[in-house]
Structure formats: structure tokens, C-alpha cells
What does this fold into?
Amino acid sequence: MLACNRLVNSIKHTRISYLTRNVTTSWSPVGAAFNARQQKRHDLFEKNVGLFGVPELCTQAGFEVVEDRAQKETEQLVHRVCSSPPGALTVETFDQLSDNLCKVADLADFVKVAHPDPAFREAAERTCINIGTVVEKLNTNVELCTSLKNLLYNKEVLAALDPETRRVAELFMFDFEISGIHLDEKKRRKAVSLNVNLLDLSNEFLMGSHLPNKIEKRALPEHIRHCFSVDGNCIQIGGLHADSPNDLVREAAYKIFLYPNPKLLHCLEELLAFRNELAKLVGYESFAHRALKGTMAKTPETVMKFLKLLTEKLSDRTTKDFQMMRNMKSKVNPRNAELMPWDHPYFSGAVRAERYNIEPSLYSPYLSLGACMEGLNALFSRLLGVSFQAEQPKGGEVWSEDIRKLAVVHEAEGLLGYIYCDFFHRPDKPHQDCHFTIRGGRLKENGEYQLPMVVLMLSLPHPSKNTPTLLTPGMMENLFHEMGHAMHSMLGRTRYQHVTGTRCSTDFAEVPSILMEYFATDYRVVNQFARHYQTGQPLPESMVSCLCESKRICGAADTQLQVFYAALDQVYHGKPQHQSSTEILQKVQEKFYGLPYVPNTAWQLRFSHLIGYGAKYYSYLMSRAVASMVWRQCFLKDPFDRAMGERYRREMLAHGGAKEPMLMVEGMLQRSPTIEDFVDALVSDLNPSLQP
It folds into this structure.
């Protein structure tokens, strides 16, 4: 460990310089790793270590090998846990079982969407399906469940467990109960059948929610047809075209893209009905009650209280925001000044542009990717004692030549884990910014700690020979956001893999990432790294101030739109309404949004978050409220406060999902926040910025 730290310290003080237009721009090794174009390697004798250092994954055929090995180890672990007396070893073995399968499933889950080779993607897809089948069988294994029950129902044994071990045991039991294992044979078979059907319906809905709609060319005015994709005699519309300055284009896109598909409507309504049936079968009032167990909110009633109170507090501001948009629309189109749902994104942006005239291209020269990575490195170093070390991946370790690998090193604890940065655009790569856990951290049987391994995926332009990758302010914030997830994974030092890092309640998981957005827009932080890549000049403070203030313009209306989505999600997953999903949409839109429902549209069929975030879409708003409170109370005065950084790690990042989420929030804030506090935090974010 000491040798490792000495190596890192020597590297930290080495800088690399580039000459651009006679101006010397000096980058640290981390900055240089991201601002310079990656050199192709041609070492014919270099050993292929396999993807992520898994030697079997030199080829796609290796997925079968690692899958078979995981299944054999699973059988051994199941036998061990079922033949051992109840105690801490029971939970440890369950976690080994989880880790054994997750190490294969999580890796395959990433490869199936990100690997450029279709053969690798297909092999990973098969592995995901096969491991999923194993997990389903384990969740309905009565003998396995009984071994856990013998632990949880033995008061003497339970009392001897530490709180983390007890919580992990309860989480494993919750997984069993979701599968209906506590039911009689007939009901258990029904639960298994419902789970299988829900998997199929979820896949069908996800696929359908992204498919374009078609309409005959002659149905659209000729002068706007060129704005859409033409497919023979049809116009194909695959999105809302929300940024189009043409009112008619936005209206046409909205009405056609959201036109109801009867088959998909049936799919959604069947999916919601099956979710409700399954939740009731396993003992819950509704799917929402089941989904919210163990979250910060805990119950659907709390979520609806939060959303209703937020709507009340935002009401006057939302009305003013919509009026500003109407005024703007009446200037552009006096004959048709009524504000409609297809107008909201465009005119909120137009109002911002009129007030502040934010031009992203003016910011980009100051925000080279390397500079931003140096900024993150400096921030984490001062706040948490953590720094990045750029490493050269070994042969076959990564799936594309432009991947950067970072070792995350603590000044006293040494190596914490690895972040693989898949930042650059390539064909067939998903256009989404996200964080993937490849391997979770846990304390191994030999006393060593299994280091976490994650991938951050962005879709940025490549650097050229003379110009580094330049980020817009939005891209920079997304980078900080995703790095918040990564550091949660790196600094979560849980004993059990099942609750490592971001494996926590959904309404808490976004807190560390959203908190990073506050750092990304604080000038004291930005000033540490934002330098013009050619001249070395710092980004003017006035430009950062304008950017921050512009976000507050129409902020209430934008927040209210998210409240509407969250409320719709809650109603869909609450007690059955005995109405169609479109009728429910109309009612919820009328109550929670300020713009009218458009007849013959079904926006809910494009609400793909209903699958992964069923009954939990509110989580983003609640996480933002917590992040806002943490920022204001702990970091607004000094964003580099090391004592606060240590408290943040100790109280919030270190526990993953091993501690009740609200207890972590209370530990950080040193008080018990109420729903009213959450709402006030979100409303306060819309006020003019506070001076520290």
C-alpha cells in the first residue's frame, strides 16, 4: 500500500505540456489521458487478459465457460448454506452466492449493450438470460429460503448479528417473498407464472415505446414533410421534435408520435394489472406499496403527500412560467397563442435564451474533457483524499481502443477500485449517459477486500489531432453526475456485495450524483479547472453566473412536469382505478400539470421509465431535494471542506444499501428532515443563487 501511494504521489506532480498557437497548455497525466488521442497499439506478442481481466473472455465463447463455472459454484454454495446451522455464516454464504452470479450477470449486462462486436453482444445476451433463469430458480428454492428463515426467526441468533448483517439477511428474505415462496404450492406457481408474464410484457412495452409511428405523406402539409424521415409514401416520426422552432412541426410530431397504438395500450394495461395481482398475491396492498418498501419514502401515501405539497408550493411560480411562455408564443405566432404541451420544452428554452442568451459553443473551449477530469481529480483529492491514476489497459482488457482506465487511490487506504471510462461515440453504441457496476466490493473470506469495478458511459466527440474533446455545460454536468455514481461505488466499503455502492434504494441512489451537479455549477469549483484550451484564460465568473441563473427561468414549470410524471406513475401502480390508462392520464394531467390533455394521444405509451422505475419515478425529485439540503447545509460555505467531505463519506457513501436511507440522510444533516423540508429545498433551488 505504501509503495502504491508513493507511486501515485510521484505521478501527481508530473505534468505534460502541449503547444497550441504558441500557448503552453499544461496537463497532468489524468488530463493528458483524456485530451490526447489514444495511440493504437500493435504489440503482436502482448498477452490477451480477457475483458475486464477475466481470462476466459478473450473470445465470446468464454461466456459459456464463466457461466458454467458460476452455475457449479452456485450448486456448492446452495449446499453449504442449506447444511449449515443458522448464523452470520448463513448471510455470508448468501452474499457469496449473490456475488458469484452478479459478477457474471453484471458484466454480461454491460457487454450485451456496449460491445462493438455483435458476436460478443449475442453471447452476453444468452448469458444474461441463463443466469436470470438460475436466479429465478433460487428465488423459489424452498430449502434455501428455509435456511434464511431459521436465522431470522431465531431471536437468539438474530440478536448476535450486527445491524449490517441483519439488514442484508432481511433484504435477501424480501427477494424471496417477492417470488411468493411463502405461499402454498398453487399460489407459488401463480406467482412464478405472473413473474414470467411480466418479464415478457416489460420487454414488449420497452420495445414498443421506442418504435416510430408512420403516417401517409399526404396527411401532412407539404412544407413540413422535409422535417421528418420519409419511408416510401409514408412519413416516419420517431420523436417529439420538441426543439423545432416551427409550431406546426412540433404539433404534428406530438399528435402522430403519441397516437395510441391499441396493441401497446393492451400490453401496458395488462402489465399494470399483473403487477397489482402479483403484489396482492404476496401480501401487499398494491404494487406501489411493495416497490416502496425499504425506500426513503417508505409508502405511496408519503410520495403523494410530497407531490401534492410540491404542487401547491410551486403553483404561483408555475402559473407565471406558463404565462411567460404564452407571451413568448404570442410574439412568434399571434394567431395561435394558446400554449400546448408540445410548446413547453421549446418556449421554456426560448424564454431562457431571450433573458440570458446562453450559447453552449462559447463555453466549450473552456471545458475540454481533460480539464474537466483534472477538476474532478482536484475536487475529490481535496474533499475526500482520493485521486485518479491513469493506467494503460492490458491487451484484450477493454472492448474499444478509446477506453480510458482509472485507478482510484486513497491517500491513506491505497487502491479503492477501477473506473473504465467509455466516453466517446462509436457506431451502435447506446446514446445514453450511465453507470454500470461490473463487480461490487465486498469483504472476502480471506480478509482481503474485493475491489469494485465500474464503467461510466458517455457519448462524446473524439479529440482530433489539434483539438481536444470540448464539452458543453450540459455535457460537463452529466460527466460530474455520472462520476458521483462512480465514487459512490468506489467509496462504499460494505462487507456485503449485495448492498455495495449504488445497490441501495432508488430514491437515495441519485443523491451522490445530483450533489455533484451542485459542485459542477459552483464557480469556486469551476474556476479550478475551466481554462481555454488555446489561450489558458479562465472561464469568466459572469458566464457561470448567467448559466446558473438561466436554469431557474421556467424552472417551476419544468419541475411541475416531473411532478406530473411521478404522480401518474404512482396512480398507475396504486389501487386499481377501473379506468383506461388514458383516462387516468387525463385526470392526473388536469390535477398535476398546467397544460391540457390533447385528444387521441397516449403519452404513457412513451413513458419507458414505467418499466425500470415502476412506482419509483418520484425518486429523482426526492434525491434532488436531499442533495440540495446537503449542498446548502454542508458545502455551500466551502465546497472543499475536508471535514464535511469525510462526514459525507462516513455518513452517506460508505454504507451503500447496508443502512436505512433516511438514517444516512439524518446522519449527514444531523437532524431528521420532514417532507415539508424536502419540498422547501426544491422550491429554494428556484430562488436567485445564494452567495456563500
Notes: Residues 1-24 have pLDDT under 50 and may be disordered. The chain has 28 helices and twelve strands. The radius of gyration is 26 Å.
